[in-house]
Amino acid sequence: MESERETLQVWKERVEQELDRVVAFWVEHSHDQEHGGFFTCLGHDGKVFDDLKYVWLQARQVWMYCHLYRHFQRFHQSQLLDSAKAGGEFLLRCARVAPPGKKCAFVLTRDGRPSKVQRTIFSECFYTMAMNELWRVTGDVRYQNEAVGMMDEIVHWVREDPSGLGQPQLSGAPAAEPMAVPMMLLHLVQQLSEDDAELAGKYGELEDWCAHRILQHVQGGQVVLENVSVDGKELPGCLGRHQNPGHALEAGWFLLRYASRKEDPKLRAHIIDKFLLLPFHSGWDEEHGGLFYFKDADGLCPTQLEWDMKLWWPHCEAMVAFLMGYRDSGDPALLRLFDQVAEYTFRQFRDSERGEWFGYLNREGKVALTIKGGPFKGCFHVPRCLAMCEEMLSSLLSRVATDPDPSCSPSSVPARGGAK
Amino acid sequence: MESERETLQVWKERVEQELDRVVAFWVEHSHDQEHGGFFTCLGHDGKVFDDLKYVWLQARQVWMYCHLYRHFQRFHQSQLLDSAKAGGEFLLRCARVAPPGKKCAFVLTRDGRPSKVQRTIFSECFYTMAMNELWRVTGDVRYQNEAVGMMDEIVHWVREDPSGLGQPQLSGAPAAEPMAVPMMLLHLVQQLSEDDAELAGKYGELEDWCAHRILQHVQGGQVVLENVSVDGKELPGCLGRHQNPGHALEAGWFLLRYASRKEDPKLRAHIIDKFLLLPFHSGWDEEHGGLFYFKDADGLCPTQLEWDMKLWWPHCEAMVAFLMGYRDSGDPALLRLFDQVAEYTFRQFRDSERGEWFGYLNREGKVALTIKGGPFKGCFHVPRCLAMCEEMLSSLLSRVATDPDPSCSPSSVPARGGAK
Q: Taking the model in full, what pTM does it have?
């Protein structure tokens, strides 16, 4: 008990300090004062090495700044809000390839001309997150109208007719469901439904559908597969055997929030078992520490060149998942796993010299890419993880202060706003 | 002189033995007796771990078998010819997504249904190579008609109207020319023009255009860039700074063949300087040996996760390029570089136990992926390199036998058929 409190206290301080340093890095180096939006291709020292604007990362940074502004007294700064709004306006002006069509670009030039388009839903999903969070901090209904209108289109693409995404229909294409799709939709439902009974009602059935589809990715109770058939069957070949431990752990904390809302402790125990412990034990590198990026469910060699690298984001997701699992279940074994992952993560990824984290280590833990941001790494996973952990650690510590044994009386509904 | 002869003799024996072992591996493990075509997703022991058929690799293996059948007495076997024909028929039957349209799939299911389509010309280019080579060994005009018809379409897509490839026109897309496009076309012209005066005439202007466009990728005389504008200017950002040393070396030997045909020793010297020596010196890892996969022209960190890995194919291309450079120029420094690269390659990539080569090593030279074949590695770069080197080494050794000092009287037109 005392050691749990100490662990919580130590991490609360480390995480809080680190969040300050990380936010300072992005504020110092990433703002495009001329066009709005953000530079995300930043070298180890924060220097811009490319001025392309990846829509995922533009939208995620808008969301992140708004979240910090809304949840943390010390980040309730006009500088963050103004940059988020400038980023939001940049997206409103430039993200959509052919307005009024809703398809968004994947990459824009610095001044906002579309450079590449993906035939998936993800640019649009991050756009929706950004617009909803911007509405929450500004009250400007233009943003909420964008969010809700885009969400309707995404749901239409996923559940009714994908033809607007531009993917060709091919007779040999596997009828596979990537777990990312129901995960992303569940995350959007949680975003849009927060303190919003009307949208929570509108998306209630969708939320259950998403959770059901994600849960189908557990096969034989033994493994979370990234791709299964739409009716939850295993697929042949590498695609069917593909495992992404960080992604399963992220799905785990999305589902823990779902189980909390449903007040379903049996579901929570299932999620901890299948989406936290299974991916951790199959994904952790016993030899060098850290989570492998990809694994093959039958123990074969993955075909992705980067399979054995250690990436920052799966470790961020693992930290959030284990701390949330501990908060919701009170199981001290989950706090120990949080501590193990967080120790590795802070030791290997943090750049104590120039701020922010390195993103890409080789298997042995040596920095393989010195960049702090790039086409897929921006101001998102690291500060989101730190902010969520700080909030959870604050809430847990205040629970300890009022309850002599918090680990035996976990709240099934998570405390909110602890770090406010 | 004596040491050069010794070097040639030693490598002739090593290369010849290795080619036998590599061909035996593919013959033993890759033939699909049921549908025709080849399994290329093979584990370290040759076991099939996925039965998808990548069109690049299907076509390359057809080409490779025909090339071996045509050029080497010991591979003039009905087993190779029959498998090549079965692969060719599989491609004729299944490669095109919507006949009579010429666009080919990127991946097919084992039984030939299209699974993915790329919006580029490369499946079609390898298809053309396969069909032309099949015609050369069988005399069946169906194959040659396919090759010439597909070539006309590829040239139309590249030089007149790319809309048939399905790429969206985006206002922010860089007007970049990847070096792969003129390289691939030059390679096809060389393939189709061999001993064919009519097609050599038809494609003469195209051949010059390709060489000119490839040569434009040398910037400031100091670096070969993968992407430049169509008028040969540097492009901004990571795309503009991207270097692929193995690709530049491959372009080098395509251009050396062009210079030989043009009997242009000044051009040959330029190619050796810019496409052989520059990429080698900027791409070679002085610390651990081997060629980096990617580099940034300004010495920044590339954003590709695999940038510092050592891949089999750049080393194959380097072996061919340096040996061809030596053969055509007589410069013993190029033979020493061939020897350096070939020593590293045979030591690090060869699997002396189960045959074929590993494809993917980490920076330090440790095997990172144990597969022998996968979505991008098939029966092509290794046997093509070994076959070309054996032919060149034979030709050089027979020149030594008849000429007391071959290094002072290089032939500007390469000797052919030495290994026949």
A: 0.95
